Amino acid sequence: MKTQKPLIAITGASSGIGAATAKKFSKEGYPLLLMARRLEKMQSFNLPKTLCKQVDVRNLDQIRNAIQEAEEKFGPVNCLVNNAGIIFWGNFIDQTHDAKKQVVETNLMGVINGMEAVLKGMVQREKGTIINVSSVAGRRTSGGNAIYGGTKFAVHALTEIVRQEVSGKNVRLIVIAPGLTETEIFSNIPEAFKQRYHELKEETGTWLPASSIA
Ligand code: NDP
What we know:
With 214 residues, this protein is an alpha/beta fold. The protein has a single domain (7-213), classed as Rossmann fold, CATH 3.40.50.720. The strands form two sheets. The protein has a six-stranded parallel β-sheet, sandwiched between helices. A two-stranded parallel sheet has the order 7-8. The chain is built from seven helices and eight strands; from the N terminus they run βαβαβαβαβαββαβα. The longest helix has 29 residues, at 97-125. α3 runs parallel beside α4 and α4 packs parallel to α5 (146-166). The structure holds NADPH dihydro-nicotinamide-adenine-dinucleotide phosphate (NDP). Residues 11-18, 36-38, 55-58, 83-86, 106, 133, 135, 178, 180-181, 183-185, 210 line the site of NADPH dihydro-nicotinamide-adenine-dinucleotide phosphate.
C-alpha cells in the first residue's frame, strides 16, 4: 500500500516564491495547506490534496485554526514554510509609522506566529522542519529598507536560536536568504524609489525566477 506523504504548510502561498514552492511540493505528491489573504489566487492553482485558507499571518488564531483543519484532513504538519512577507521601500524618516508596523508585524510577527502554531507539536512528535524565508537583506544592510532589513536580520537570529533549542528533539529549523527574485513583492514601490528600482534591475541583470528558490 502506498503511504501518504506528510503535510506541508506554506504561508504567502498566493504568489511568488510561496506559490512556486506550493507547485513544486504538489508535483512531488505532498498534501498542502496554503495560506495567504487572497484565497481565490491559491484556489486557482487547482492543486490536488490541497486546503487553501484565507489567513493573515499577523493573526495567530487564524494560522492555528488553518493548521488544525489541515491536520484533521492530512495528519500532523511535517514542514512549515514561513514565507509571507512584504516590503515598503523608503528612508526611515520618510516612512509612515503604519508602514513600519505592517512590515514588522508581517515579516517578523508572522514568522513567530507560524512557529508558535507548529513548533510544540513538532517537538512532542520529535519530527518536523520549519523553513523561514529571510533575505540577503538579513545578512547585509542596504539603503532604503531599514525596517525590512531589520525584520530579516531578526528572522536569521530567531531561526538560529530556536534551532539550537530544539535540535535535540529532531526538529530542524532552516533559513533561506534569497537574492533578488522576480515576484510581485516590488509592485508597490513608492514613486521616489522607482528610479532606484530600475537602476538596480539594470545593474544586477536577470533576477532569479521564484521557481529557483522553490
Ligand atoms: P510576493 O509578493 O510575490 O509574495 C508574498 C506573499 O506573502 C503573497 O502570497 C502574499 O499574499 C503573502 N502575504 C503578504 N502579507 C501577508 C499577510 N499579512 N498574511 C498572509 N500572507 C501575506 O513576494 P515574494 O514571493 O518575493 O516574497 C516571499 C518571501 O520572500 C518574503 O518573505 C520576501 O521578503 C522574501 N524575499 C523575496 C525576495 C525577492 O527579491 N522577491 C528576495 C529575498 C527574500 P496575500 O497578499 O494574498 O496575502
